[in-house]
Amino acid sequence: MTGVRFRVLGALRVLNSAETPVPIGGAKPRMLLATLLLNANRPVPVDTLVDVLWPHDPPPSAVANLRTYVSALRSRLHDERDSAEAIQARPPGYLAVVRPWQLDLLGFDELLARARYLRERDHPEEALEALNRANALWQGAPLEDLTPSPRWEAELSRLNEARLSATEERIDLRITTGRYGTAIAELRGLIHEQPFREGLWQQLMLALHGSGRRAEALDTYTDLRRRLVDELGVEPGPSLRRLHTEILTGGLPEEAVTAESGRTAHRQDAFPIHQLPPDVSDFTGRDRFVHELSELLTRSEGSGPAIATVVGSPGVGKSTCAVHVAHAVRDSFPDGQLYLELAGTSEEPNDPADLLAEALRALGASDVPGSVSERARLYRSLLADRRVLVVLDDALGAGQVGPLLPSTGAVLITSRWQLTELAGARHRELDVLGSREARSLLANIAGEQRVTAEPQHASAILRSCGYLPLAIRIAGAKLAGRRAWSLRVLSERLEDRSRRLEELRLRDLHVRASFELSYRQLTAETARAFRLLGLLWSQPVPGWVLGALLERGHADDVLDALVDANLLRLVGTDSIAQPRYQLHGLLYCYARELLADDPERERRAALARVMDGWLTLADRAIGDLEARASGTSAASHRHPPEDVVNDLVADPLAWFDAERQALAATVTIAAESGLDELSRGLDTALSTYFDLRGRHESWNSRHRAAWQSGHHTRYRAFDLRVVRSGPN
């Protein structure tokens, strides 16, 4: 078994596979690592980490310094691992990714759970062995070499209590198996440290009684009672008094030793389980969506679980909405809520086997089977006939989700990918906010008074954010943190599309980073298609455009991949039943950013192919309406494919009606990109359509854009025609 190992049950230590210490650095890197390890496999917010490292007066550069410490830790640990990074960025902060064998804290919890499992199944010797191994992991007080942070208090208290409980269970097993002498010796030392813990006194009485030292057992009770009365003014608890009476009268049955020693005291029912993250206090809008989703989860249909999926583009608020709904329906699931983070958008999504092990431990199973199928069967058995809501956040696909589906209850899944192959699931797509909801969210964060005072600039900010909740939250937080700013300042800074994503960034909240998580999951060709869409505009386009960009006849597979990843939206069909697709405005900005790294020659060629495709379709449609005065035609006419051309222009006038706005925008793009010949060719084609429809004003504006790119002798015939028959 290779890889780095961490020790927190005692002084903080990091060991490589050869058990050689790995140097970590000074106090702050060690405090950072300790905090992450105390919260192993759970994201720790940036604010918490800053508070740990700078408890009194954090510097202005605290977050930047934190990133430096994280980077340094990663660098030191990188060479010691043969897997993913031990420290990963995970909103709202960072988390340490470790397995039980790598961290003594997790190993202790796992051994303790196994011991309890064995004990419940009447295997005391094996249970005692597991507890002995768990006790051996403790080398002192947790993190005894570091100055404790107030942020650690709850976890350190839990650990110390767990250690003492494990010790009591271990001693109890010694008594149960007749090892009275060792139990008595250890108990006397523990009582010296914990003089008012009645459970220890109770065990000492039982051990003394079991070893035939009845008088000492009774003296022990007298000693405890005197201490409690003199120092605390209370009598011993009822179970101690009852045990004293049994020993005194000589009527302590054999089974009472087991019962009184707490054999079942630590057997806890895992239900109800409450694992949901906190609800967002400023959750805004989505009333209809929340109602529909709540209905899907609480409605009983058939014998299987109710399964609902929430899908949507990056930053639309899927996880936030799912957690809000889960809290709203808590009363319908009296056995609790199980929450699992699937990390589908990370570089290493969580394996179903590991997720099942996590779920089984949460449900009280300490002996986790080895195979995925065995774990899944045990998981379903533990949840059988229970009303539990399982929340699976950030799913990669149906293959990751399948083993985690229970046989009863309800399941709520969030994903950036369409999960339509998931049998029995009801699918709901989460869109951006409506204008009123978006305004309310901005006002809740930035302040109602400021938003009311500058309604036009508030609207402009929301438009620049594309009504995307993540972007609005960042914009609102920026304003909240800059009280001297007017909304106009941010509105004007967001106007420039080339800078917009950089503006929508605040500490670890970043729209671009959210997009990156989805983009890096794409295949090379699909990623190239996404980038090339940034050549066009953020208005709806027909599907054949993607084939032209990629220089392919048909690109339906790539189109479907982008839609399934929610990076491209199917917005509907136009008047000629042609599906149309659209990039969200901020995704368009992101595509433009990525495109800057592609060679100029390839970008220009791709754009020319699309322009040529529009000209091909326009030429074919014009041929059925009116002969072209210019006599021009497109150079190659390879895009779209012939079958697509025939289908689209079967009704030429209807095609022009459907594509009028797209053609007009194409004329402008071609002119601005220096594709003069294609720009003028498209402009020429549009003249006939606008003339037939009597839309001379619209045609004049597009005509000027095309011809401002320069005059070409090839179009003189057309120019003369404009002079002769153009509108007055």
User: How many structural domains are formed by the residues?
Assistant: 5
**Major beta-sheet overview:** 6 strands, parallel
- Low-confidence sequence ranges: 253-268, 627-636, 709-728
Shape: elongated
Overall average pLDDT: 83
Class inferred from helices and paired strands = alpha/beta
Percent of residues in helices: 55-70%
Structure description:
It comes from Halosaccharopolyspora lacisalsi. Keywords: DNA-binding, Repeat, Transcription, Transcription regulation. The structure is a single chain. By secondary structure, this protein is of the alpha/beta class. The chain has five domains: 1-177, Winged helix-like DNA-binding domain superfamily/Winged helix DNA-binding domain (Arc Repressor Mutant, subunit A); 181-268, Serine Threonine Protein Phosphatase 5, Tetratricopeptide repeat; 273-429, 3-Layer(aba) Sandwich (Rossmann fold); 435-515, no CATH class; 522-728, no CATH class. The protein contains 33 helices and 16 strands. Strand 1 (5-7) and strand 2 (13-15) form a beta hairpin. Helix 7 packs antiparallel against helix 8 (198-210), helix 28 packs parallel to helix 31 and helix 30 runs antiparallel to helix 31.
Question: How are the SSEs placed, and which strands pair?
Answer:
Layout: E1 5-7, E2 13-15, H1 27-38, E3 44-45, H2 46-53, H3 62-78, E4 87-90, E5 93-96, H4 104-120, H5 124-136, H6 153-176, H7 180-193, H8 198-210, H9 214-232, H10 238-249, H11 254-260, E6 273-274, H12 287-298, E7 306-311, H13 318-328, E8 336-341, H14 352-362, H15 372-383, E9 388-395, H16 398-401, E10 410-415, E11 425-429, H17 435-446, H18 448-453, H19 455-464, H20 469-480, H21 487-495, H22 497-503, E12 505-506, E13 509-510, H23 511-519, H24 524-533, E14 541-542, H25 544-550, H26 556-564, E15 569-573, E16 579-582, H27 585-595, H28 600-625, H29 642-648, H30 652-672, H31 676-693, H32 696-707, H33 716-725
Parallel strand pairs: 6-8, 7-10, 7-11, 8-9, 9-10
Antiparallel strand pairs: 1-2, 3-5, 4-5, 12-13, 14-16, 15-16
